[in-house]
Design a protein that fits this description.
Structural class: alpha+beta
CATH class of the largest domain: Mainly Beta
Radius of gyration: 19 Å
Low-confidence stretches: 18-41
Number of strands: 13
Largest sheet: 5 strands, mixed
Distance between the termini: 25 Å
Number of domains: 2
Length: 259
């Protein structure tokens, strides 16, 4: 059931992208051949967006402070806003009727979320929850639509983010369909290192902390499975835990686990 929901979510993203292009913005795309749309896409579920000036949207808009685990909005509810992360991180997840969770992505600083409902006027498809203490702009949907009509750069950035989410969801379907549990964890760690790591004497240190349950929710695994795999990687000297942070000691060995 969760698998089908992810597919529906991806199709909604594709449909919204088509609508955006139908708003006569095709000439803009042709002029943007050297823009960030051509850059390689990182399919990490941790969506870290490069610095972008959102002032068109954020000037004079309300910033709401959320504590860790505060819910910004619930799945299948309507809101009047688009959301932009000013600081912190926000997790977007879908839930089954029996309470099982599948995380779709984690929105980091400068990432928009809740944009699908702007275009189709349907309820929000996922629940948005603060992973850390976060500051989030609440931007009225009507303001966002008006800004898109006059600000070509903003329109392109919105398309870029939606395309990145669509590729991410497609890669998740690929992982769920073809990769075993060890491969999924290895891929997630490498993707995480692409955005949130720094060099250290022992390898690559991941700069953010996460629980095994959070990793499990992102990968469609159980917490027990993720804990076992992480323990195995530590035993094989692929990873180590240092002061609460994960260090990738041997990325080449980690890649060997990817099918």
């Amino acid at each position: 059931m969760l698998y089908l929901t992810i597919i529906r979510y991806a199709m909604r993203l594709i449909n919204k992208l088509i609508i955006l292009f139908d708003l006569e913005w095709k000439n803009m795309i042709m002029e943007a051949n050297s823009s960030s749309l051509e850059h390689p896409v990182n399919y990490s579920p941790w969506l870290k967006i490069d610095d972008y000036n959102w002032e068109t949207l954020t000037q004079g808009k309300k910033v709401i402070i959320y504590k860790k685990n505060d819910v910004i909005y619930h799945q299948q509810t309507y809101t009047d806003f688009l959301y932009l992360v000013k600081s912190g991180r926000v997790r977007l997840s879908i839930y089954s009727k029996d309470g099982r969770e599948k995380s779709l992505f984690i929105a980091d600083k400068n990432c928009l979320f809740g944009e699908l409902s702007v275009f189709d006027n349907l309820p929000n498809h996922a629940t948005a929850m603060a992973v850390t203490d976060s500051e989030v702009y609440h931007i009225p949907k009507t303001v966002f639509i008006e800004c898109l009509k006059v600000d070509h750069d903003l329109s392109l950035k919105t398309i870029e983010i939606m395309a990145r989410k669509n590729r991410l969801l497609a890669s998740q379907i690929e992982d769920l369909s073809f990769n075993d549990a060890y491969s999924r964890v290895a891929i997630a760690l490498i993707k995480l290192a692409m955005s949130y790591s720094s060099d250290c004497p022992d390898g690559n240190k991941l700069e953010i902390k996460f629980t095994h349950q959070e990793m499990a929710n992102l990968l469609g695994l159980s917490r027990v499975s993720v804990s076992k795999i992480m323990s195995d990687f530590i035993r094989l000297s692929i990873l180590e835990k240092k002061d609460g942070y994960i260090v990738l000691k041997d990325v080449h060995k980690l890649k060997d686990w990817i099918e």
